[in-house]
Design a protein that fits this description.
By secondary structure, the chain is an alpha+beta fold. Helices cover 29% and strands 32% of the residues. The protein has one domain (2-174): Alpha-D-Glucose-1,6-Bisphosphate, Chain A, domain 4. The protein has helices at 25-33, 121-149, 160-174, and strands at residues 2-4, 13-21, 52-53, 62-65, 68-76, 80-87, 91-101, 107-117. An 8-stranded antiparallel sheet has the order 1-2-8-7-6-5-4-3. Helix 2 (121-149) packs across helix 3 (160-174).
């Protein structure tokens, strides 16, 4: 994972996760292209709110997971999907999945988030959302590795902080029905 801060003019948060996987880019690209579909083997929906879209993965598709709302602003099948945040309030930015060749028969799956938190999001991002985001993306990377190796997915144990924040999120979600 890579985190950083930038100047006031642009995004102030950069978070990157990547995993080198023993499979060609075409195979990893198919996993990314199935995000939000009934055939989605990548998203860890057994542990996190499912990624749901209002139509197949394509520019203009809208959806999200849990309280996160976004729409697809770029899609290069097999290579890239980029989402722009529409919620929660104060989340101005994007996140993307990128597939790159990483040598013979290997690929690099990258997830990058750029965000300029505004208002309350200046507090909710670092204190609440960031640790949950990092745990979710690491679960997704673990799932990708298990899928391409043909091994059972063995979820990692979350930190005490992530477990605590998930309890808070669950209680909050129970009071806010109707989320996608």
């Amino acid at each position: 994972m890579v985190m950083g801060l930038a100047k006031d003019a642009g995004p102030s948060v950069f978070v990157g996760h990547e995993r080198t996987l023993p499979a060609p880019p075409e195979r990893i690209g198919r996993l990314v292209d199935a995000l939000g579909s009934p055939d989605d083997a990548l998203w860890p929906a057994d542990r996190w709110p499912a990624l749901q879209l209002d139509k197949p993965l394509q520019v203009g598709a809208r959806g999200g997971h849990g309280p996160m709302r976004y729409h697809v602003v770029a899609h290069e099948p097999g290579t890239l999907v980029r989402f722009r945040f529409t919620g929660p309030p104060g989340f101005v930015g994007e996140h993307e999945f990128l597939v790159e060749r990483a040598g013979r028969g290997a690929s690099r799956l990258r997830h990058a988030l750029t965000l300029r938190p505004i208002g309350n999001a200046r507090l909710t991002w670092p204190l609440f959302y960031a640790p949950l985001h990092d745990a979710l993306i690491e679960d997704l990377m673990d799932r990708a590795e298990a899928v391409v190796k043909g091994e059972p997915y063995a979820p990692r144990e979350w930190s005490r902080r992530v477990r605590f924040l998930r309890r808070i999120a669950k209680r909050w979600g129970e009071r806010r029905p109707g989320r996608m």
